[in-house]
Structures are given as C-alpha cells and as structure tokens.
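Q: I'm a student working through a structural biology exercise. My instructor gave each of us a protein and asked us to get a predicted structure, then write a short paragraph describing it. Mine is DUF2993 domain-containing protein. I'm not confident about reading structure output yet, so if you can add a plain explanation after the tokens, that would really help. Here is the sequence I was given:
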Amino acid sequence: MRALRIILILVVVLGGLFVIADRVAVGFAEDKAADKIKTTEGLASTPDVSIEGFPFLTQVVGGELDDVKIGIKDYEASTGGTNAAAGTIRIDDLNAEMHGVAFNSDYSSATATSATGTASISYAELLKAAKAEPTQVASGVTAQVIGLSDGGNGKIKVTVEATVLGTKLPQPVSVLSSVSVSGDTVKVHADSLPKLGVELAEGRIRAITDFSQKIDELPGGIQLDKVEAAKSGVDISVKGSDVKLVG
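A: Happy to help. First, here is the predicted structure for DUF2993 domain-containing protein. I'll explain a few features afterward.
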C-alpha cells in the first residue's frame, strides 16, 4: 500500500508539472505567433492569439493544432468600390477561428484547413463609400448621403439631403436599404426611393442612394461571407479554406 501511495503521489506531481510546462509552452507560442502575425500583416498593434485544446505539447508533436483564435483591433483593409477611391477602411473588430492549423518543421509557416469569423464596420466608415459630396442628379437638383444608421429588422437607414433650384429641402429624407455581400464587396441597395420634390429617373436617384464598398486583402486570404445591419454598423461573417496563418 505504501508503494502504491508513493506511485500515486508521483503521478499527481508529474501530471501537475506537465500541465504547468504545457501552459508555459502554449503561452510562449501564442506570444511568438502574435508577433509573427503583426509583422506579416503589417499591423499597428499586436493581435490577440489563443491556441485552443489540451495538451498543447502533444499537438505540437503531431504537427497540427486543433484550433487557433485570432483577434485584431482596428484592422485597415484594402478597399475600392463604385463610389470610392482606392484606399483603406477600418474594421473595428476582426475575429477569426482557424481549424486544423498545420505547420512546417521549422515553424516558419502555418496554414489552417478552414477558418470562420466575424468583422464589424462602423456606419461612419461605411459612409466613406457613399457620395458624401453634393452631386448633381438633374438640372438644378443636387443630393448627397449625409448619414447611415440602423434601420431595424436588418436594414440600413440611408439619409439624403437635397437641394432643388438652389433651395435646400426643409428636412433630409431617409430610405431603408438592404445590405448584401457579392464576392469581396458589400453592397447597399435602397428598398424604395426618397422623395426629393421633383420627378427624377430611378437611375439618377440610385446613383446617390445605392453604393458598394470593396473589402480586400483580409488576413490570410479569408473572404467575406454574409453581412447584416446592426446597431452601430454592419456585422460581417468571414470564412476561408487553406488560410495562411503565418509565413
């Protein structure tokens, strides 16, 4: 019985030491991965990296990590679009979960079999894609989008200000718009047309109310999947396969 008790104590002690060593190793790996991603993606700040699953060390021996979560604040994504010059758009929060992350023998690169995640863009940022300057839509009629906000039920409220024959309309007019994803582009399309006080062709009005914003070169090559209007901006789902984590 004494020998069995000693064996059990040793097992518990060694098990505890293994857990400590495993947690120290995963913390070190997370810090190194975060620094590598910051450098690779040219980020202004260090991202949050969390390596899931236990034990970590046996995953390393197997050459593949089950799941890796990455969180990036204020990511500047490359842009383009029908109504915007090429530049960048700020993504407030970009969070991705990488599945089946395999790495090479010297740990210089890692690729995830698949990835899912979310991103959020404020209405103030998305407004940059609209015609924010007064634009002539007909003789004597100018209009511009002056605001985007939550319209409820998954819609964006687009607020337009217009001037007719030199006189600004007493109140801005608003329409509810649908938002969708097409490839690497977020599109905003008015469900109905605003009343600007004069008869105008639909295409002329939509040149103001409807717009698109390209969002390109997301980390690791992940792609836009779905988008929906939220309280303070749009929430976007992202996904990808064979996503390059580092290297």
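A: Here are two points you could use in your paragraph. The CA atoms of residues 98 and 115 lie 4 Å apart. The chain is about 25% helix and 50% strand. It's a good idea to check both against the output above yourself.
Q: Great, thank you!
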